[in-house]
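This part of the workshop introduces the protein records we will be handling. An example says more than a description, so a record of this kind follows:
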Amino acid sequence: MKKLLSMFCAVLALSACSTLGESSFFGGSECESRMARDFMENAEDRVFFAFDSSAISLDAAEVLDTQVKWLKKHEDVKVVVQGYCDERGTREYNLALGERRANAVKQYLVSKGIAADRISVISYGKERPAVLGNNEAAWAQNRRAVTVVVSE
């Protein structure tokens, strides 16, 4: 299931390049940067959260440990952690919750030895759902933080 999700994320990231411009996600002139591809192949890029929570679960910690391992091997790479929420709640509340989620991921990575200046955060709140739907299954997929490589 995780491999399938990783493949979906890679396709999504590549399709985003064609609609948002080559430098929007990867910070370089070539959308399919070697580092971004390597990250997607060797680390899991997203963690999920419980409703109205920014706490890192045990499952999330396992995923983040794959990111720590990769980031320690590639010390010149910077990332942005994107925080997201499900559709429930106000826009303002969800932007703040998405930021707390992204910062929770950042703090976890920093606590494991990744330099804080290599990690930036942004919240999209409920504005960019990964899954459309008005049920718990969809909401659970939208309560997430995604780590994206931005430079080499």
